[in-house]
Amino acid sequence: MRDTVRQWIREARRIAVLTGAGISAESGVPTFRDAQTGLWAQFNPQELATEAAFRAHPQRVWDWYAFRREMIAKVAPNAGHLALAAFQQRHPGRLALITQNVDGLHQRAGSHETIAIHGSILQDQWLDAARPCCDAGALQAGRPPRCLVCGNLRRPAVVWFGESLPVTALEAAEEAANACELMLVIGTSGVVYPAAGLALAAHQRGARVVVINPEPTELDRVADHCLREPAAQCLPALLEH
Ligand code: APR
Q1: Does the first or last residue of the chain, that is N or C, have fewer Cβ atoms within 10 Å of its Cβ?
Q2: Cβ of residue 163 lying under 6 Å from some atom of ligand 1
Q3: Quick one: pLDDT band at residue 201, thresholds 50, 70, 90?
Q4: Among 24, 52, 45, 32, which residue's Cα sits nearest to residue 191?
Q5: d(Cα 177, Cα 179) in Å, to the nearest integer?
């Protein structure tokens, strides 16, 4: 199986990669939907990852993201992140990396042109449209911080449930999915849209799709191959020179 996929990687002029929480699992970042350890097994996403939840309980939601930020700051990119970054450096412009992850581990591994379609947990933005008084450099401290003048809250720059994806990132991701000859779908359950739709689009355009995941996923049905392996063990072997 691996050899066939290695051959497809060698042959493909344009490769798109779609990653999810599973690629960061071996770094120690919990996934979302793992039955025991997943974040959504421990926390209710409707109470923590929606705008309504933030407006209702800003401190609770802010603290939860602060807890995740601290956890992410303590971990490092793994061999899977590093193998993708190294391939991109060896073959500039051949591999477009689309991630659902907000942890910044691809970027820390050296994948500087990562298309982060769900935003970044490492950045903040204004909750409401910024007014002339809203100065991110002069905030009233607090959890969350707010505008000194109008009280506009700062919120994590991530895409919450029910929110649209950042337009520029989504357009770049769709372009990559529509232009690739091969898509590697790594560490995602494939249940969240429009992200999962990128793999369907690539498949419909005739690209080969390879799923890399120790468990079955919703996207196996469009896969030409499924490698039932952890990403950090599989990717170095697949992408090495
Ligand atoms: N290597 C590869 N895949 C793995 C590994 C590993 N070491 N460990 C776990 N996985 C797989 C799991 O089997 C699962 O299919 O990673 C997948 C993680 O799925 P989810 O927890 O559903 O995460 P993801 O698909 O990224 O979620 C999508 O949902 O909660 C929202 O916005 C959030 O971006 C997230 C989106």
Answers
A1: C
A2: no
A3: very high
A4: 32
A5: 6
